[in-house]
Amino acid sequence: MPSPTTIIGLEVHVQLQTRTKIFCGCANRFNPDEPNVQTCPVCLGLPGALPVMNRRALELSVRAGLALSGTIAGLTKWDRKQYYYPDLPKAYQISQYDLPFCQGGHLDVDVEQENGEIQSRHIRLIRVHLEEDAGKNLHDESGRGGDSRVDLNRAGTPLLEIVSEPDIRSAAEARRYLEEIRLLMVYLGVSDCNMQEGSLRCDANVNLEISNSANESIRTPIVEVKNLNSFRGVEAALVYEISRQQREFEQCGGIYADTAKQTRGWDADRGVTFAQRGKEEASDYRYFPDPDLLPVSFSDEWIEIQRAELCEPPADRRRRFVAELGLSEYDAGVLVDRGRETADYFEAVATACGDAKQAANWVTQDVLRELNEREETIESFPIDAQGLASLLGMITSGDLTTRSGREVFSSLMNNQGGDGSIVERIASIVEERGLSAVADSGALETVIDAVISRNEKAAEDFRGGKDAAIGKLIGEVMREVGGADPNAVRETLISRLRP
Amino acid sequence: MSETHSAEPSHGQLTREDVLKVARLARLGLDESEVEEFTGQLGQVLGYVGILEEADTEGVEPLAGASERTDVLREDEPGESLTRDQALSGAPRHDDRFFLVPPVLDTSAE
User: Fold this and answer.
1) Same domain, yes or no: A129 and A58
2) Helix axes A329-337, A340-353, angle to 10 degrees
3) A281–B108 C-beta distance less than 8 A
4) In-domain check, residue A303
5) Contact A452, A473 (CB under 8 A)
6) DSSP E strand boundaries for A183-222
7) Count of the separate structural domains present in chain A
8) Which residues on B lie below 8 Å from A291 (Cβ)?
């Protein structure tokens, strides 16, 4: 029996990074400690209030749509989606129904397959639309059925919904897709995508296509898993749901009493999805055009202005780092996925020192290790790109050994070398510690010859084939010439002893 | 079509089930006589609006709104918000920080 095909589509919600809400001037700010201080008659849905569209929200939305290769509509409008829920004070959500601002589009995602191979997957999008977010309900968790509390600070903040085609084929792929959307949105400055604060959330639609005993292809009923708010949560919820649907199929033999779409929640603590009470008339939102809001038209010129604001997408940047700068796929991924600022920093170092591979080694290893230890971001890193590039330049030119370079690096991290610029501090640290490599190979050779004659036994052992004996000789030369390059010392010793 | 209230003209194909569904969606509890009454009334409203269907709209672009105006936007500049006390003042119940509502069991939002 062929193995089942997994069919997943994601609806991803991204909170836009605007200063104010979508239809009013209240602050768009995560502020759970001060509930209900960012509201006004518009976002509370009080009678007589008039919503007016936020220009910035439109700009950010269209940039996101363009970066996802979608088609921006010439004309778009907003509709009322009616349902009752305490976090929705108007009893309708202003959303987009039949004229979303963006249709189509796609996102390509590299996904590691079970056999370890990386496969590029092309995930098509159905649409992207702009809507208002709801407030937040805080439920009584004592189990005593106490009141729910409602905070409307978030009500009316701008929310992008990115709806994929059911093109995703595994839980791991869903996670990668979500990660790539997050990275793209953060690169674009569209959203901070802070998952702890709920700036990126998603719902997953999943079902399976399985062959039954009569070799007929059966589709299990679609399940929508709601409110997934972490990468791990998305993957774990889908892994669970896929095996649950498979078990259910085996139990019922593919004959379902009810094939209607089901809504399930994800319990991260127990690691299970659970059936939620089906919303009555769930699909009956009675959309109609919001009479308080006017449609918006986008001219080709305006769309091109927004396109000009786009940055290089992360996927293109990874490819360029590999193709043009000669980095490994792995290093390119580490640098780009860390965020735009880190990739910018690396690129500035690489350009200034002229050796991208060396720059990548130092940034992915030394710089990121320091950042991780200090729990800081690249913006506050004490060695600027010019400074690091000049240090690497000295290593490339042979003025410093790699070992001395690391010593200078850690001295800089410990605020040594005075108060000057990084370049000045490097010079002073090198001077102070006598780290400058002996460029004059004649001087180095004199020392080496002296060391060989002082260590007859070791030299004889090495000549006789005992490779390890060279260590003692290298060590002694290095002690005499602090800045010497150990590789150069080794090579010179070998050429003297085994000509 | 309702047995007792056949609305005029022919578009009034509104059933008792339609009225019950609309009432449920609007969270309205109707008694038997109201169901009858509204089935007739709503049927007549639909019938009246149905006249619009007689207009020939062949080849006419649908309108996105009732106004010809588009593109009324505001700048992303903060305005004034209500104080928390003001925001909560109109609510039937609150605890001085939050609006209070009867327990919500289904934790799913849209």
Assistant:
1) yes
2) 130
3) no
4) no
5) yes
6) 200-211, 217-219
7) 3
8) 65-66
- In this model, does residue A120 exceed pLDDT 80? yes
A156 lies in the same domain as A291: yes
Q: Which of B64, B74, B84 sits opposite A54 (nearest CB)?
A: B74
Asked if B65's CB is within 8 angstroms of A294's CB, the reply is yes
Contact criterion met (CB < 8 Å) for A84 and B27: yes
Residue A107: closest CA among A178, A17, A19:
A178
Q: Which of A433, A466, A487 is the last residue of a domain?
A: A433
Q: What is the pTM of this model?
A: 0.84
Lowest mean pLDDT among A130-144, A299-313, A470-484, B47-61: A470-484
SS3 readout for A364-417: HHHHHHHHHHHCCCHHHCCCCHHHHHHHHHHHHCCCCCHHHHHHHHHHHHCCCC
Q: Residue A13 is part of which domain span?
A: 5-297
CB distance A222 to A205 below 8 Å: yes
List the domains of chain B with CATH numbers.
Answer: 16-53 (1.10.20)
A273 and A359 belong to one structural domain: no
Q: Identify whether residues A270 and A402 lie together within a single domain.
A: no
The CA distance from B61 to the nearest CA of chain A, in Å, is 12
Tokens of A39: 């509201």
* Same domain, yes or no: A98 and A204: yes
A421 shares its domain with A454: no
Based on the fold, state whether residues A461 and A399 are members of the same structural domain. Answer: no
The 10s digit of each residue's pLDDT in A60-83 is 999 999 999 999 999 999 999 998
Closest approach of B76 to chain A, Cα-based (Å): 6
Say which CATH number the domain at A490 has. 1.10.10
Burial class (CB in 10 A: 0-12, 13-18, 19+), B97: middle
Spell out which residues of chain A touch residue B28, defining contact as CB-CB under 8 Å: none
Report, as an integer, the average pLDDT of A237-254. Answer: 94
CA A286, distance to chain mean position in Å, is: 37
Query: Smallest Cα–Cα separation from A52: which of A60, A43, A61?
Result: A43
Q: Could you give the ipTM of this predicted complex?
A: 0.81
Tell me: do A385 and A474 sit in the same domain.
no
Residue that terminates a domain, selected from A402, A433, A464 = A433
- Record: contact A152-B107, CB cut-off 8 A: no
- pLDDT tens sequence across B10-68: 445 789 999 998 898 888 999 999 999 999 999 999 989 989 989 999 998 887 777 77
